[in-house]
Design brief:
Elements (H helix, E strand, L loop, with lengths): L3 E7 L13 H11 L3 E10 L7 E6 L2 E8 L1 H20 L10 H18 L8 E5 L6 H7 L6 E4 L7 H4 L5 H8 L4 E4 L2 H14 L3 E4 L2 E4 L2 E7 L6 H8 L2 H13 L4 E6 L8 H14 L7 E6 L8 H21 L7 E4 L5 H9 L3 E4 L9 H7 L8 E5 L12 E3 L4 H13 L2 H17 L2 H12 L4 H4 L6
Helix pairs in contact: 2-3, 3-4, 8-12, 9-12, 10-11, 10-14
The chain binds adenosine-5'-diphosphate-glucose.
């Protein structure tokens, strides 16, 4: 095999030293590429008055990145538009928030074309190309039209929605047809894979060739579930760092005689923050004797601020957090702390480690890496309890967590009471099972299983044979 070329919207290799925070996808790709001779291609995060396709190449932490600037209008239509105002809400079942605008679709197509034109000259015959996430679904089609015949795989980090949700997207068939230019499409869970297959059978007159291979649009496509993991060994190492210990001590000092409940999420409507806040409020209302025994910390750095839905939810969360403290705080105590800033990963490790409860309750989430980080950061002799939404992809692997319906305020409140009352023996038993899974199914296992599936058969032998 030649090089691994990873393509994603944003490129942010980290040094692996704890560093500043990055999103889930960037964190995973950084870790996945670290021990690989590869190139990471994508948008530089900068704009230019006119697109030139000029590449910026640099090597950070052993990863070579090749990035390109985009025009302001590209950002508006492709990134803020089709990616974050159309596909993101729709794929997270928020049809009410999805904007369908022809200009967004055109911008999306244009940027994918531009990415393909800039990337194509870098590709050598033996390279394999691994494209990530909903921003770049049509990239393989564009690369194929430029004559690229390498193996190209796609991985979707977010949910694939149910068929009846998907068909709300104008020109959905066109988008799905473009997926058949990949050799392999990977999903986070078998459930998302099945939802994709169902779409193909119902909307594209498709058929199952065999398990893990579907045919439609005159082509066959390999599909599979590849649940993403974290770099568990690295995160475990981080929990022992000086910065983590300092943060752990700091948190313990401000929760003396109290249990810390922690939530860490990008500020996004898919993460179920409003429902979670109200769930905590309900817990306080129902358990007056517990009020002074707990403190909840929610860390939620703002994201996608250019999108109105994100501005609106921010306002609602500010009001809710004020309401909870207004209702329950006393002169010497406040139950709820809500902060909107980023933390270093080693600091986060310290915060997770000081918590008795990790509250991870997204309404929909492709996987959710915070749940896995929380588990790794626990003290094996006195671990905290993970409360996890059944609608996070992670719930499929993390059955020993307390699984809840995040839409039910009652269930969240009851799970909090149960977690706080759980005896040490049960906490340890649950934690051990969770930890084993997170350590085993880590980011390296994810990368290796995906790359093995993508390179399974010889490219030249396979591609032409698949045309039906
Ligand atoms: P995200 O939606 O970004 O990822 P998630 O998987 O939870 O969600 O990853 C968030 C990452 O950002 C975690 O590594 C977390 O530690 C970090 N983070 C969050 N808040 C932070 C803060 N305040 N300071 C520092 N770091 C912070 C998308 C999908 C997920 C999927 C991932 C990976 O939406 O479902 O799990 O990609 O595939």
């Amino acid at each position: 095999m030649g090089r691994l070329i990873v393509v994603s919207n944003r490129v942010s290799p980290s040094t692996g030293e704890g560093g500043e925070s990055v999103g889930g996808l960037a964190m995973a790709l950084s870790a996945a590429l670290r021990q690989y001779s590869g190139v990471w291609f994508g948008w530089s995060g900068k704009t230019t008055p006119e697109f030139t396709g000029q590449l910026h190449i640099e090597t950070i932490g052993g990863v070579t990145s090749a990035t390109v600037d985009l025009e302001e209008i590209d950002l508006e239509e492709y990134y803020n538009g089709y990616a974050n105002k159309t596909l993101w809400p729709l794929f997270h079942y928020r049809i009410d928030l999805a904007a369908f605008d022809r200009a967004f679709g055109e911008g999306y197509g244009r940027v994918n074309r531009r990415f393909a034109q800039t990337l194509a000259p870098l590709i050598e015959p033996d390279d394999i190309i691994w494209v990530h996430d909903y921003h770049l679904i049509p990239l393989a089609r564009e690369l194929r039209s430029l004559g690229i015949r390498n193996r190209i795989g796609f991985f979707l980090h977010i949910p694939w929605p149910a068929h009846q949700v998907m068909i709300n997207l104008p020109r959905h068939r066109q988008l799905v047809e473009a997926m058949f230019d990949y050799d392999l499409v990977g999903f986070q869970t078998a459930e998302y894979q099945q939802a994709f297959e169902e779409y193909v059978f119902n909307e594209a007159d498709g058929a199952m060739v065999r398990p893990g291979c579907v045919r439609a649009f005159g082509r066959a496509l390999e599909v599979g579930a590849f649940p993403i993991g974290i770099d568990a060994a690295d995160f475990a190492r981080m929990t022992k760092s000086a910065k983590a210990r300092r943060m752990h001590n700091l948190m313990s000092a401000c929760t003396v005689f109290r249990h810390l409940i922690v939530g860490v999420d990008r500020l996004d409507y898919s993460k179920g923050l409003e429902e979670r806040f109200i769930g905590f409020e309900r817990f306080l209302q129902q358990n007056p004797d517990q009020r002074r025994e707990v403190m909840m910390l929610q860390i939620a750095p703002v994201s996608r601020e250019a999108v109105e839905a994100y501005q609106e939810i921010r306002g609602r969360l500010d009001a809710l957090s004020g309401r909870i403290n207004g209702e329950f705080a006393d002169v010497d105590w406040a139950p709820f702390r809500y902060v909107n800033r980023n933390y270093r990963r080693d600091e986060l490790a310290g915060i997770y480690g000081a918590a008795r409860v990790g509250l991870v309750t997204p309404l929909r989430d492709g996987m959710n890496l915070v749940a896995k980080e929380f588990v790794v950061a626990q003290n094996p002799e006195d671990p905290g309890v993970l409360i996890l939404s059944r609608f996070a992809g992670a719930a499929h692997q993390m059955q020993e967590a307390l699984l809840v319906n995040p839409n039910s305020v009652e269930e969240v409140a009851d799970a909090l009471a149960r977690a706080l009352a759980m005896d040490k023996a049960e906490r340890i038993e649950r934690w051990q099972a969770l930890f084993e899974g997170v350590a085993r199914d880590d980011v390296t296992a994810w990368r290796d299983s995906y790359v093995a599936a993508l390179t399974k058969n010889d490219r030249e032998a396979r591609r032409p044979a698949l045309v039906v």
